[in-house]
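Quality-control log, excerpt.
Job 1 of 2 completed; input and output follow.
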Amino acid sequence: MPSHSLALRETDELDMQARSSGLRFAVACEKRRFKLNNTMKLKSGATIPHLSRAEADKKNYLTRGVLTQMHLMPNGDPAAFDTAEDGSIIYYFDPARVVEAPPEQWYFPRAKKETRTLESGTEIERMSIKRAASCGYYTKERLSQMHYDTIEEPVAFTIKGDGKTLYFYDKKTAIRLPLACIKCGKDIRYKRKLCKSCYEEDLAIRREEGDLHRNEFYGMDRERVLFFDLELTGVYDHDEIISISIVDANGKVVMDTLVKPAHKKKWKHTEKIHGITPEMVADAPLLDDLVPEIKEIFANADNLIAYGVSTDYSHIKYIYEKEAERDWLKEKTRCCANEFVRFAHEHLPDLLHASLTDAMAALGIEWDGIAHTSIADTIGCMKVWEKLFPNYYLKAED
């Protein structure tokens, strides 16, 4: 029988076996592709050609077995490949891209200096399990536990105490197996470590729970729910506030002011984002001058909401000297970004980003003012929150 027909028959049998397991079907397809195609795409993204043994010899390419005998190891991707009669892959390496193997891999005193010839004609060396692991070689069983399947022929072997032979395979040339769903354990993972069916069931449950949370009646007073945003000289703790905006849930501006930093003289990186220059804040009040008013505003609020509250809180908390006061402030704060991320995970699972701009676009909200200024971001946050929580406030008739 021609070798090509034999390869087809073997791979058809392999496909039939693989179809009984959804996890291994993708691997079977890969093996079939390697056998019938003239090229192979490696994990690195490189594509290598198929060469016969004679063609590889003409190019002076070396097999892994020959490299081992010469105390060499590959220093890059294989240069070509061939398929052995048993279906395994034989890689050929360019002698210009090899390096000397570490001396500890040359010899192993306790292991017999012994080789074995495979059906392909390749000689492989006997080595201990410890030495094989140091080279990145593992048995099929161990690779399976690591969710890999072998396509290359063995690269080494050892003999167990009971006389049985164990073959080692190179992990670098093994195929990464698709992982099983952590819930049903049957189908291939789709998202959140779940298969598509389990993911959709989980999504429906999370969506229902999220919608109940967002549609609940909270009965909040619009005048006592405040939204705020800060612009800063940078993102670190030592950076300073240069703009503060506070708006209540009616859209009334409670505070909107530039702030002159006490120490920073320039902030070129963040200036490109919010557009506030040192000249613009030269005559603005210092933060210390605004602290009494800010404290009074916060004291009359039930909730303080910001989009990405952690950065804003980490800077505004320093207007309070006592830790208890800072804890009191933190208890009032709510993060609009976290709530939008939850909404997006439940209703827009393919959304890649969750910035305020993304949230407003996803919810169909237009900007008031110039994006990334504190007042525009504050109003934007207020509108996103009301879209997410339509029953958050007391009704007019209440």
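Job 2 of 2 completed; input and output follow.
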Amino acid sequence: MTRLAVLADIHGNLPALEAVIADMQGQEFDQVVVAGDLINGAPFSRQVLEAVVDSGWVAIRGNHEMLFLEHLEEGPGKKARRDSRWVLEMTAGQLGDQWRSHVAAMPDELTLRFADAPPLRILHGSAGNPFRTINRHTDETEACTLLSGVREKSVVTAHCHLHFERRLAGRQVLNPGSVGAPLDGRTNAAYMLLNGDDSGWQAEFRRVPVNVGPLVAEFRRLDVERRWGAEGYLLVEQFRLARPLFSSFRRWHVEHYRGRGESVELAAEFLSGGRLWDYLPPEYQLNRHLLEDGVEVPVNGQSGTGCCA
């Protein structure tokens, strides 16, 4: 039997990665695989890359590695997409030139071929596109499009930051969830164990408690709220609340304050007013009780075909 640990979407969150590494202690794996987005978001991108490389893990690029490389290549006439430039500047400062070549040489996709298990395709988003992925609401028609050209019957994907196992387009589709930036209201780091044999791949989803205090303290040391205003404030709160805040806030802002500039005060009003749930994208409307009572429940050993509802 082949045994794998699959991680994804660490986003520079070293405390979360360290919690997962501690949870993995004492277990033997044939390989540890990271399905993209190791960097960009939390302020420890360099330390995350160092930990992954020093551990000898296999990793692919995600969309944030692509954004990082594009940011370094920008000329005076080019403009980074919104929500990218300021955090990419922070990431570039963390990594320096020494990590550029490493990220540039990372593969975009992988196919794992072990002798005692079926081939396993590792993607970040979809084949050829790290920015589009299958999520818990993707229908059969869209899945066929996203998996076009994928011959393997078992596929790991990431990017949506929610763990699940689904049967779509004649394939087993697995998402390990996010180590560093879960978006289901639980700050617990998510990753996946895979056991493979002649019968296929069996998944076990794990959630590991994470202390977000060191992360918040580092953001405060960097003074991100003063430097980047509402976006800096929302970045910290997105890690603290484990919710997708940027798009949610902007929908609320346009509806209630169109024509008024974004500010920390408005972002704080949005989060303090009990409005967040109604503005979350449907696929992220999970664990509503955590918005009401702040409960954080570790879930370990969850397996089967369910998602993270």
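Post-run check on job 2. The longest strand covers residues 189-197.
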